[in-house]
Amino acid sequence: MSIVIREMTIQDYDGVLALWRTSEGVGLSDADSEESIARYLDRNPGLSFVARDGEHLVGAVLCGHDGRRGYIHHLAVSESHRRQGLGRALVERCLSALRRDGIGKCHIFVFAGSQDTSAFWKSIGWTQRLELIVMSQYTR
Ligand SMILES: CC(C)(COP(=O)(O)OP(=O)(O)OC[C@H]1O[C@@H](n2cnc3c(N)ncnc32)[C@H](O)[C@@H]1OP(=O)(O)O)[C@@H](O)C(=O)NCCC(=O)NCCS
To answer: 120: Cβ–Cβ under 8 A, 6 or more apart, which residues?
Structure first.
């Protein structure tokens, strides 16, 4: 593989959205509009990445932090490029960027029941938090 991983910019948006749309396990919402992603990248410089194989965008991950903890969202690798270490490499880039920013721990949200995805995270060293549930509310 001649894969290049580099920081995501908003110019990557169309390709990244196309990858997310075809990736099971990535839940999209109004928070993924071009405007929202541009704001996210501005607020979290140097933390989100894309992987390219030549012309083709084959991986993407959003990462940010709130000053205390890091959060990874929407990790996706093209089906054609899975099981070659690319998912792990993208996550490692995020963790290393978080460390550089002084952030000591990172969280992810995984859809309950997606066993392949859970197996991926566990196999790269992440711990499932059985004592926590996620709760949400709209601000409007
Ligand atoms: C999850 C995903 C990003 C993994 O990407 P990937 O590049 O294939 O992952 P890697 O090759 O780095 O895998 C690292 C290890 O994770 C484990 N793993 C990866 N995919 C797995 C699967 N489908 N089932 C079980 N274990 C898996 C393996 O142990 C693998 O190491 P190995 O190939 O040497 O056995 C990819 O399958 C994907 O895009 N899925 C759809 C979107 C998604 O679910 N994203 C996560 C949102 S939280």
So the answer is: 87
Question: Mean pLDDT over all residues of the chain?
Answer: 97
Percentage above 70 pLDDT, the chain:
99
Nearest CA to ligand 1 atom 31: 83
Q: What is the mean pLDDT of residues 23-43?
A: 97
The residues spanned by each domain of the chain are 3-109
Which residue from 82, 110, 121 has its CB within 8 A of the most atoms of ligand 1, so it is best to mutate?
A: 82
| Predicted local distance difference test score (pLDDT) of residue 1 | 58
Q: Is ligand 1 within 6 A of the CB of residue 23?
A: yes
Check pLDDT > 70 for residue 7: yes
Domain 3-109 in CATH 3.40.630.30? yes
Which of 120, 121, 128 for mutating ligand 1's site (highest number of atoms within 8 Å of CB)?
A: 120
Q: Largest Cα–Cα distance in the chain?
A: 46
- The span from the CA of 111 to the CA of 130, in Å, is 14
